[in-house]
Amino acid sequence: MTDLSRHDPGRTCSLVASLAGAPSRSVEELRLLNKVNGALEVRADIVGDLDPATLRDHVSGELVYSLRGMGAGGVFAGSGEQREQRLLAAAGHYDLIELEIGRDTTSRVLAAIPPHQRIVAWYGLSAAGGASGMDLAGLREKFSRMAEIPARQYLLVTHAASAEHALVPLRLLRSLARADVTAFSVGETGACGRLLAPWLGAPVVYGQIGGRAGEAPPIDRLIRDYPFPDVPPVRQVFGIAGRSVHMSLAPRMHNSAYRAIGYPGLYLPIATRDFLTTWRVMANGLAGLGFPLGGGTMVAPYKEAALRLAEVTSGAAASSGAANVLVRTETGWRAHTTDPFGVVGALGRAGIQLTGRKAAVVGCGGAGRGAAAGLLRFGVTPTLVNRGPDRGMRAARLLGLDYVPLHRFVPGDYSLIVHATPVRDELLFGLDRLARDTTLVDLPYGRRQTALVTAARRRRLRVIDGWEVLRIGVARQFRLMTGRSMPDPHSLEHVR
């Protein structure tokens, strides 16, 4: 079998941006798409039949026409005659026309649209009724029928109700070893497979422009977070696991660093609501595809589960009762936590002296416990603060620290406060009585400032935001997973 994925450093893939909103609001994304000579897919079922001549004024790549029906995840509900008329009209102006197998592959349509202009597509998006597309034999049979129709490209999209289902399209790609078939899943862990598919021969990666957030990643993230359109050699896969990780900037930081030092790795999002099962399935499945899972980052609420999964645990992870990094070793998974080092490292880089500080950590989840453990290692004994008493008292017993309920917390008693809850848009405690030399560390990060950072800067307090902590934490995660030093994470100011 020809390996299309690992040993050809010259391979590239095409990026296709599905236009699901007004093109006038997508100028920035279209510019990015043009930089990589990507194609624009017009979702005519959503945006209507746009003027292709006007689109060509803004798009340097090919134009793709898609009139996706409701059974294919689209919204077109017209008659068969209306559908045929629109497809045939589009064929005179678009470079590629997506034809749904069976519905559109009639003798009249095939006579009017030549093979080089066809994308023959099948969507098995019913979680209950799509079982024929969920196993490899069923998917191979489906493709065999599709391949009877000559086309430039073939597209198969399944619905994944589990991590095991999400791996099936990747297994199909590996077994076919063709360069004209794209296959992936939507649903559970689907994004991971969509992004890995080009290393198994898929010629296309689909992103999205405009419209509401959907299954496809925004095209700007697809271009900025991954090496596309290049498909460089990959020897090991890493990932970030959580319930919702699609907006995480960790893939951008890790993948940018891999490219900078020539490391053959790929960092992917692994979205799941069943971490333990998904991690085990993905580890076994990816290894079977030739891409061993070398490790990953865990975000809440999976930091305690990551600790249970490991055969060996670092001292910092054991003391905080949570892990945010798993690394594969010869004897199994080793659990680490970088939370202590992110907070203490950010304080050190800012020149904040810890000696003599009276500290409090607000939030007793994995991040809060890690921050408290880090302060303890450097001679600061923090007080733990939490809204819920059960988690707060459990953390206090684990770390041997005092616990104060949030409603009894007096911020003015402390000169160092670490906020380690996920709350971004409200203040959990007041800042009015804080001394001017108080330092605040706020762990949440995002495109907008948190309420705490905004209020602290307004009062001209010393504040370290989540970005600074993130960069230091990611650099340590990078070294744990790869054994290599990350290029200076503080030079990655664009990573926001």
What does this structure look like?
With 496 residues, the chain is α/β, with parallel strands linked by helices. The chain has helices at 27-35, 44-47, 52-56, 80-91, 107-112, 136-147, 163-176, 190-196, 219-225, 250-261, 275-288, 303-309, 315-320, 339-349, 366-377, 389-399, 451-458, 466-482, and strands at 14-19, 39-43, 63-66, 96-100, 118-124, 153-160, 181-187, 204-209, 236-242, 265-271, 293-298, 312-313, 325-329, 332-336, 359-362, 383-386, 403-405, 416-419, 439-442, 462-464. An eight-stranded parallel beta sheet has the order 7-6-5-4-3-2-1-8. α1 (27-35) links the parallel β1 (14-19) and β2 (39-43). α7 (163-176) packs parallel to α8, α14 crosses α15 and α14 crosses α18. It is elongated and about 80 Å long.
Short description:
By secondary structure, this protein is α/β, with parallel strands linked by helices. The chain has helices spanning 27-35, 44-47, 52-56, 80-91, 107-112, 136-147, 163-176, 190-196, 219-225, 250-261, 275-288, 303-309, 315-320, 339-349, 366-377, 389-399, 451-458, 466-482; strands spanning 14-19, 39-43, 63-66, 96-100, 118-124, 153-160, 181-187, 204-209, 236-242, 265-271, 293-298, 312-313, 325-329, 332-336, 359-362, 383-386, 403-405, 416-419, 439-442, 462-464.
